[in-house]
Automatic annotation (TrEMBL):
AMP binds at residues 425-429, 454. This is Bifunctional NAD(P)H-hydrate repair enzyme. Catalyzes the dehydration of the S-form of NAD(P)HX at the expense of ADP, which is converted to AMP. Together with NAD(P)HX epimerase, which catalyzes the epimerization of the S- and R-forms, the enzyme allows the repair of both epimers of NAD(P)HX, a damaged form of NAD(P)H that is a result of enzymatic or heat-dependent hydration. Catalyzes the epimerization of the S- and R-forms of NAD(P)HX, a damaged form of NAD(P)H that is a result of enzymatic or heat-dependent hydration. This is a prerequisite for the S-specific NAD(P)H-hydrate dehydratase to allow the repair of both epimers of NAD(P)HX. Homotetramer. The gene is yjeF. Residues 231-514 form the YjeF C-terminal domain. In the N-terminal section; belongs to the NnrE/AIBP family. Keywords: ATP-binding, Isomerase, Lyase, Metal-binding, Multifunctional enzyme, NAD, NADP, Nucleotide-binding, Potassium. Its cofactor is Mg(2+); K(+).
Amino acid sequence: MKLLTAEEVRELDRQTIEQVGIPGAVLMENAGRQAVAHLLRRFGSLRPGPVLVLAGKGNNGGDGYVIARCLLDLGWRVRTLVLGERQAIGGDAGINLEVLLKLGGAVEFAADAAALAEALQRQEPPALIVDALLGTGLSSQVGGLYARAVDWINASGARVLAVDVPSGVDATTGRILGKAVRADLTVTFAAAKVGLAVYPAAERVGELAVAEIGIPAALSRALPDRHLLVEAGEAAALLPARPAAGHKGTFGHLLVVAGSTGKSGAAAMTAEGALRAGAGLVTVGCPRSIHPTLEVKLTEAMTAPLDEVDGGLSLQAQEQVRELWAGKQVLAIGPGLGLADETRALVRHLVRECPLPVVLDADGLNSLEGKPAILNQRTAGTAVLTPHPGEMARLTGLSIAEVEADRLGVARRFATAYGAVLVLKGARTVIALPDGRLRINASGNPGLATGGMGDVLTGLIAGLIAQGSPAEEAAVLGVFLHGLAADRLRKTLGEAGMTASDLLRELPAARRELTQQGECNAQG
Ligand SMILES: NC(=O)C1=CN([C@@H]2O[C@H](COP(=O)(O)OP(=O)(O)OC[C@H]3O[C@@H](n4cnc5c(N)ncnc54)[C@H](O)[C@@H]3O)[C@@H](O)[C@H]2O)[C@H](O)CC1
Ligand SMILES: [K+]
């Protein structure tokens, strides 16, 4: 699903009104009527109300007046409370306010705290609140009257329909500007907003309905797909082909360089993740001291002992790795490698020199701490990095709080600066592409927050590249499949106690489900 920023939506609005000539009042009428259609679908059992429409002073409020009028026509009991003076409401919103008044709509105006408190206190407790306070015009911290209204809505116990955006949510970044409405249903217009797809806003949205309001499809299509929400449809389109005559060589051979004393499991789960992704062959290069252990842990994957110091790989291993990567399609490096200085120096050397696509994770990422520019020295093959917020903080020198406060911007800036695919893990994992486009993953759940899940993802992404998927597509598809497997497991195991080994076993079925989804989509 294409996602738009507040700015892109405003531009669509402007083009539609000024270039195409569809009046804004028509868009507002369509928006209000579409919102009512979803209101009746979702809250029809609350008929005839009472409904309270809380309207701000802009066009979000304008949608609210159209909603109030439509509900009146349908026999609902609806009152409207405007946060501002009547004469302050102009434009298309003003037109609809006057129409609502002419039709006898119950409208009150509260322009200061005392008037608002008195008006709210006097209200018959509404069964349903329509939040038409603020939409894509939000431009500062929510305070004053609006803050009181948001608090009152959230404490009311009523069901809440948010018009376009839950008030207080930044439609572009997903940040909450001070405070925000918690909605049961958000009816958003023209396109889903980027900010509604990411946290913390995503937990304020409730059910999200995207309503078409008359923006010409040609204008929407003309917008670049800078932001995409990856759901089953988008992911299924990325599945690599599985030719019937395929053999092990068809599905690629990848090299995993991972593991250290006490962390052989990371190497094993990465290798198994690649096999479960459908890779043909997997070879694991690991420190000599854990090689016998991995020989026991791994059956299908081949293993190769590498030179080490203190239980971690040594610089001497670089020649051995070079020999091993000959004839491979991709290198996955980092899981459980440990942080010995020599190991970190080795990783930096291999990342700089490896002519294959590289998937870099965990301790491998930490080897680039303060030195991400090594990625610019690579001469072939795309690098895919899969940091969690802590690893991203070390990679960028930002704090974890700074990373989490601007996940989209931090991921995009890194990907474009270093020409890499940057997978910033977390709730709604962000995949930033080297050209600056962002993909936001819709699958997954907190069951993934347990050791080893990252190793599986690294193997999964590398395994897809081994099968011929371009690195960008492998990252997007791998993240979605990883989350889909967790969503399937949630149904059988619940969220707590799901392990990476459970996920490994679930991956083939997740891929089959997605393949079937893709076949359905292809048949239309
Ligand atoms: N194509 C579409 O999607 C259409 C959307 N419509 C609706 O229009 C709003 C956007 O309307 P706009 O007038 O630009 O802004 P808002 O109504 O969201 O905000 C009103 C006004 O509030 C002021 N403001 C900003 N931040 C704050 C704050 N923190 N506290 C108080 N006041 C604030 C600022 O002056 C804003 O201008 C969109 O969301 C849709 O609901 C059209 O109806 C149809 C086409
Ligand atoms: K709103």
